[in-house]
Design a protein that fits this description.
The complex is a heterodimer of chains A (312) and B (240). Chain A has 16 helices and two strands. Chain A has 312 residues and is mostly helical. Chain A binds chain B through residues 169-171, 174-175, 177-178, 181-182, 184-193, and chain B through 50, 52, 71-74, 76-77, 81-82, 84, 88-93, 97, 100-102, 104-105, 108, 110, 113, 149-150, 153.
């Protein structure tokens, strides 16, 4: 049963558009799945390999801009941005890894944070290539109907899920976790920590970049403040995984559902809506204190709490 | 033919000479004890052999090939495994997974790695604890886990850094037994130990360090009666 759970959930998701959801609900679903893809990517590097990145917007943005620039400069379909982003983001991740992976723990986090900001400023000012703050608009949309976008991101999500699962259950997964638990011990057990951290970073970056390239196609407009956003991309990525469950297969999915719905819910409250970042902050504090392993990771604890609520 | 040769190795930290002109060799199949008062440079020497530090001067040869300057993982692949004085288990992994992670060094197959890990756990007497998350292990078993992990990498030589410290008498005897069994499988051992009774009984030869210098080398009997060694450990009290 447990073995088929991923297929079952993918199947249910695939059937959802058939029940005639409104365009708004399709949008929400697409966002949930896109965020689970980004969450899974971050989880690979931050959750399993223990390298906490505060700059995943960099990879998201590079992926998004690969698609955008390709369309803007060559007139090719922005969908070619998906395969192109794999190459571009992988090369970019190698460069970033070469610089940032010399740093450990909080210093790595700060390094990636800086990287995200540097890229935003670069994209804002490199107007000949990126159009700067004007952003890039995809003038002809492929489809009006959201269903096709939904299936594309769903395929991407299912593929990412199985790639992450395959990696984590293999030798690579053991090495990632060994590096997370103790880098010196891992090194002395014959694990080339620099190499495997680079592998984790590149894989994570490529998946995030694909989500970025999809975003360009789906939203039809990108600018540096959106796709390289520290608070709306990098931090939300971390929150998706933290809320859902660090280093769990389902955590990013659960986290994405909660975060997207919560954001919509709070935004719809009159007057308070603008303060949704404040609520996210409070939520993150509560999660760190009471459910440090996230909702999936602390599942037994949650069940115990709920049962206690019933008996008393 | 000697397996490991340490040739004129010095290691400085700023102005401090942690090791000065150390030379000795370890023969294939023997147990070499490394002793000396606290701060003598024993662990630093391990770190130089293992690749955490490069030597400031001199070189280290393993099977006639230079290994100084290599990174720890490269040294490990060439066949030298080590344990840490301050144990470093992969905390949130089970005991079995800890050992599987190191058994993966010589294979890409999960089944082969697991077989090797189970074998090693049985060898070190940790098999019954295989499912415990290693964070929850008592110290004695963590020390054994360090040894198991090092063995699972399939080494020719193993460096044991105070694997007996803090053990109770029963655990001590078990560990001595394990070390003897390791030797019986043909693995060469270099061991740092403060427990004199243990080191004297299991070592074939002993090297003594004091203030970063080698002050003696020889069989346990020679070391026991060496005046320099006695002075290093007891001070010059007998002259007073």
């Amino acid at each position: 049963m447990k073995k088929y759970l991923p297929l079952l959930i993918a199947g249910i998701l695939a059937l959802l558009p058939l029940i005639g959801l409104s365009s708004y609900w399709m949008h929400i679903l697409i966002l949930v799945i896109m965020w689970s893809v980004i969450g899974m990517a971050w989880n690979l590097l931050g959750g399993y390999c223990g390298q906490v990145s505060f700059g995943h917007a960099a990879f998201f943005g590079v992926g998004a801009y690969t698609a955008g620039i390709l369309y803007n400069k060559t007139g090719m379909s922005a969908w070619w941005g998906l395969p192109a982003s794999i190459v571009v983001v992988a090369l970019f991740a190698l460069l970033i890894g070469y610089i940032c992976l010399r740093l450990k723990g909080p210093f790595f986090a700060l390094g990636t944070l800086a990287m995200g900001v540097i890229l935003r400023v670069t994209a804002e000012n490199l107007t000949t290539i990126t159009e700067g703050d004007l952003g890039i608009m995809i003038r002809e949309r492929t489809w009006i109907d959201k269903t096709y976008y939904f299936y594309i991101i769903l395929i991407l999500a299912v593929a990412s899920f199985f790639v992450v699962k395959k990696v984590i259950e293999s030798k690579l997964g053991y090495y990632f976790v060994a590096i997370r638990e103790d880098q010196d011990a891992a090194e002395s057990l014959g694990i080339n920590t620099t190499f495997y951290k680079t592998v984790a970073l590149s894989l994570s970056a490529v998946i995030t970049g694909l989500a970025g390239a999809f975003y360009t196609n789906y939203m039809g407009y990108i600018d540096p403040k959106i796709v390289f956003a520290l608070h709306d991309i990098s931090i939300v990525t971390i929150m998706v995984v933290m809320v859902g469950g660090v280093a769990t297969f389902w955590g990013p999915f659960v986290g994405a559902i909660i975060m997207v719905f919560l954001a919509e819910l709070i935004r719809s409250i009159p007057k308070l809506g603008a303060a949704h970042h404040t609520f996210f902050g409070i939520l993150l504090i509560l999660i760190i204190i009471y459910l440090p392993n996230g909702i999936t990771g602390d599942n037994p604890k949650l069940k115990r709490l709920l049962r206690m609520g019933k008996t008393t | 033919m000697s397996m490991l040769e340490v040739k004129n190795v010095s290691r400085f930290f700023g102005g401090l000479a942690a090791l000065t002109d150390i030379s000795f060799s370890v023969e294939k199949g023997e147990i070499l004890g490394l002793i000396g008062p606290n701060g003598a440079g024993k662990t630093t020497l391990f770190n130089v052999v293992n690749g955490f530090y490069g030597p400031s001067e001199g070189e280290v040869l393993f099977n006639q090939a230079r290994i100084s300057g290599l990174k720890p993982h490269q040294v490990c692949i060439r066949g030298i495994a080590r344990t840490f004085q301050v144990v470093k288990p992969l905390q949130r992994m089970s005991v079995l997974d800890n050992v599987i992670a190191s058994a993966y060094l010589r294979t890409g197959s999960r089944a082969v790695a697991e077989t090797k890990a189970v074998e090693t756990l049985k060898f070190t007497g940790l098999y019954d604890d295989r499912d415990i998350i290693s964070k929850g292990l008592p110290l004695g078993k963590r020390k054994k886990l360090e040894i198991a992990r090092a063995l699972a990498t399939g080494p020719e030589m193993i460096l044991l850094d105070e694997s007996f410290a803090g053990l109770n008498p029963t655990e001590l005897n078990e560990s001595i037994e394990i070390i003897r069994n390791i030797k019986a499988t043909g693995i060469t051992i270099m061991i740092i130990e403060h427990h004199m009774k243990v080191i004297m009984s299991i070592s074939d030869r002993i090297v003594v360090l004091n203030y970063g210098q080698k002050i003696a080398e020889g069989t346990p009997e020679e070391i026991r009666s060496n005046p320099l060694v006695i002075e290093a450990y007891l001070g010059e009290a007998q002259n007073a």
